[in-house]
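Field: COMPLEX_INPUT
Field: COMPONENT_COUNT = two
Field: RESIDUE_TOTAL = 315
Field: MODE = joint
Values follow.
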Amino acid sequence: MLSTPIMTGYIPVAVAYAATALSTGLTPWQTVAMSLFVYTGAGQMAAVAMIGQGVSLLGITTAVFIMNLRHVIMSTVIMERLRRSPLWVRVLLSLGVTDEVFALETAGGQAKGADNAACFAGIALGAWASWAIGTCIGCGMTTFLPPELMSALGISLYALFISILTPQIRQHLPLAMVVTVSAVTSTLIGSSQGIIIGSLAGAAAGMFLVKEEDLP
Amino acid sequence: MNMLVLTICLALSTAIPRILPAVFISRMHFSRGARKFLRLLPVSVMAALIFPGVIQSSPNAAACLTTIGLSVFCGLMNWPPITAVLASAGAVWLLLVLM
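Field: COMPLEX_OUTPUT
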């Protein structure tokens, strides 16, 4: 199975997402529905964090949309390879594009004569299924946990973000400047406008401060 | 917050960026600058979320610093994200129970 490395990576993150979503007050159904239909790791985490912070529906949608704009690039690269597949196949498969699927698909290269669409479908479906299954496992686990631990889990969402960001910064030190600009701007402005303006300011600063080879 | 409406809005906001290239593949071109900006966005969005969020969701300063410290450590060690989640949730839980 080509998607095995993604599955082992997704399940623990999905468990963590489910735990934090439930501790923010979402029901298990809402938590699983987000994983099935929204299907964006960082975006779902961000959405849950913003629900917890009381950000408006428009604010949450805008912030998640901005986060997802990167998928335009990834989907473009993958669709280049699936150019010969029919439109409905391309549209269906495009819904499976994630950071990790993209990394695996592009890092692995293409076997000569392989059916690109079938190969990509396998990776994408495996990843999607493991994200959903991990969310279900997380929902199941958290019903047995004490309430103090559930409230402690609320903060663990940020632990997750930090532990995703830290290795990237360690590898590409100039990204620390992007993080600093985003964090300071967003903290100073506050609320959902802060998150959106902070994100844009950080990326804009990165345009000048980060070299091409230091991009994540 | 109407969760059904939110889920639909979020589903659209993730589906649209993914589907657009599938439909318009032959007509899409990005400048190098645009590519760079889009690749920087995930990092900057996460950073913009973390700092106001971790301060707001912490019951006290000790919990806030513990979470940041432990998760930076797990990240630097390249441990899987679940370790940072479990370590900081466990530590904050202990803090809440003990204090």
